[in-house]
Design a protein that fits this description.
Helices cover 38% and strands 20% of the residues. The protein is α+β, with helices and mostly antiparallel strands. The C terminus is likely disordered.
Length: 409
């Protein structure tokens, strides 16, 4: 039985929700942007008109205004975006329980064996989402997840594209390699160095060559390009295993020295340790990512001799990485602390001869007690004395910034 996969993508989601909530914004060039006061003043989403004028996600607000003089800037309303995302999911679940979200605004649906015509179902989903929510979606229909996703990207807004076993070579293979899911800028550049520019070029490349060059990711890309991917759509409610836990901030002003960096790292580590604890995980490695005031990223990581969830140990290891590697040629604008190489807390491990298990157990109980106090009386009920006063973080613990390769629990 040939699989019937749909990918539904809500068009210009944030901006569309804003225009739906405020009818005066309809038909205008709008951009949903972060706060300039907290140095998050970039474009998070834009309407179709703003996009046509050259506004791009990630632009600074002043750059966006240069592209579009009539641009209307609005702040994000994440609670509303979550609400309408859930309402859209409810519509999708009328057709199948096999619904796998891909962010707030995108979902895969598996209609295989449901007795439904996928094209008719896609049209119904488009019409229902528009009539019930006032939002439009583009839908891709295909025989696997990768091509369904490509289909939803081909025609926007409020459109449908069908990619079949018979037509995918004509529709998909001429597209640039960068259009393929999981083929990011770095991989696209590597492929171009070997004359591989389109999805068809990837499909025509030797699997052994791609494996030798890009590892298992190279084989996966070739499967995607050749239409042989068989990954399944997960059931509603399924959650991917947590691979890493991170927390990051863009500081309200640049960090000037090691002491200021240490205080921010320690603050971020509180949240990382908390999430490791509530998920029953330990970290066998740490990673720190920073962005300087010239907007260049640097990332350092290290393995740990003993797995931990201690905020203090995570902070100390990250700070040691920072001091060893950063040369202070520029001030620091943003920081992210990340726990990597996660294992279950009950996982047995070999201690080192320098490790004191009794001391470690006492430290863990102490931090568990602190967690309980914070749960009952608030996050700032107990905290490190060095975090008193201004640590250059707006609304301590509330500002997240995505760094390259960062995944949140």
């Amino acid at each position: 039985m040939e699989r019937m996969i749909l990918h539904s993508d809500m068009n210009c989601f944030y901006a569309s929700v804003e225009a739906m909530l405020d009818p005066s914004l309809r038909g205008k060039a709008i951009a949903v942007c972060g706060s300039q006061e907290t140095r998050h003043g970039i474009v998070l989403a834009k309407s179709q008109l703003a996009k046509k004028a050259g506004v791009k996600t990630g632009m600074a607000i002043w750059q966006a205004r240069e592209c579009c003089r009539d641009l209307i800037v609005v702040p994000p309303q994440y609670d509303q975006y979550l609400k309408y995302s859930r309402l859209a999911h409810e519509i999708y679940l009328r057709y199948t329980p096999l619904m796998e979200p891909y962010g707030m605004d995108e979902c895969w649906l598996d209609l295989t064996g449901c007795g439904l015509d996928p094209v008719h179902a896609a049209d119904e989903i488009r019409a229902t989402t528009k009539s019930e929510l006032g939002l439009t979606v583009s839908v891709g229909v295909s025989f696997n997840k990768i091509f369904a996703k490509l289909g939803s990207d081909m025609k926007k807004p409020d459109a449908m594209t069908v990619i079949t076993q018979d037509n995918f070579r004509e529709l998909v293979w001429p597209l640039p390699a960068s259009d393929l899911l999981y083929c990011g800028p770095a991989t696209t550049k590597k492929l171009a160095n070997y004359g591989i520019h389109t999805i068809g070029d990837i499909a025509a490349t030797s699997p052994q060559f791609l494996r030798n060059w890009l590892g298992v990711n190279g084989l996966a890309l070739r499967n995607y390009a050749a239409g042989t991917d068989t990954s399944r759509v997960m059931t509603d409610g399924w959650e991917a295993p947590i691979k890493s836990v991170g927390h990051g901030v863009t500081c309200v002003s640049d960090l000037l020295d090691d002491e200021e960096v240490w205080r921010v790292i320690l603050e971020l580590s509180q949240d990382v340790g908390h999430r490791l604890r509530i998920n029953g995980l330990l970290a066998k490695g740490v990673q720190i990512t920073l962005r300087d005031n010239d907007l260049f990223y640097k990332q350092y990581q290290n393995t740990l001799e003993v797995a931990t969830r201690s905020p203090k140990e995570i902070a100390e290891q990250c700070f040691a990485l920072f001091k060893t590697n950063y040369r202070w040629q520029n001030k620091v604008r943003a920081l992210c602390v990340r726990a990597i190489s996660l294992v279950p807390e009950k996982c047995p491990e070999q201690l080192t001869i320098f490790d004191d298990p009794v001391k470690r157990e006492k430290q863990d109980k102490l931090e568990g007690a602190i967690e309980d106090i914070r749960r009952r009386f608030g996050k700032r009920a107990v905290y490190n004395a060095c975090l008193m006063g201004d640590i250059k973080v707006h609304e301590i613990g509330a500002q997240n910034v995505t760094m390259p390769g960062m995944m949140y629990a």
